[in-house]
Amino acid sequence: MSWRAPTLNRVLGTAPELAALADHAARLSHLQEIYARTVPDYLAGTSRVANLKLETLIIHADNAAVATKLKQIEPRLRTEFAKTGWPINALQFKVLPPRPKAPSPVFDRDAHLSDDARHSLSSLFDTLEPDSPVRAALRRLLDNAG
Fold first, then answer.
1. Residue 26: which of 39, 10, 9 has the closest Cα?
2. What is the CATH T-level fold of the domain 8-95, as seen in this structure?
3. How far is the CA of 9 from the CAs of 48, 50, 53, 91, in angstroms?
4. Which of the residues 13, 50, 66, 69 has the least number of beta carbons within 10 Å of its own beta carbon?
5. Starting from the edge strand earliest in sequence, which strands make up the sheet with 47-53, in order?
6. Domain limits of the chain?
7. Segment 18-30, tens digit of pLDDT
């Protein structure tokens, strides 16, 4: 059996002091699902549920134009949330552009591994499950590093 990273829910569920955080995260996830079903696709892709404070839902928009459009459909959003059992009294729209994605690492194609490093990585490679993503990455490293 291959090793699997624990999910956030599993980690939060095992720590009693984090139970409130896990509950809040579950509420936000559920609200995001409702939100994504309610708004047009072009708005769902450029905005997201950010937080819930009391009965105020905070939505982050990628730009002012998206926030303005969301304000126009606020009554419809509140109605949809109420229909699903979430009495949202107010919505706040905040412009918060998405963070730029980190650039992919650039590997020096001329990099060389020492014999000891190559041997250690090859030994590790042999112990991994055939479908392991780490095994695939090691294979690429071993193939590309002279």
1. 9
2. GMP Synthetase; Chain A, domain 3 (3.30.300)
3. 20, 18, 21, 27
4. 13
5. 47-53, 56-61, 90-95
6. 8-95, 115-144
7. 778 888 989 999 9
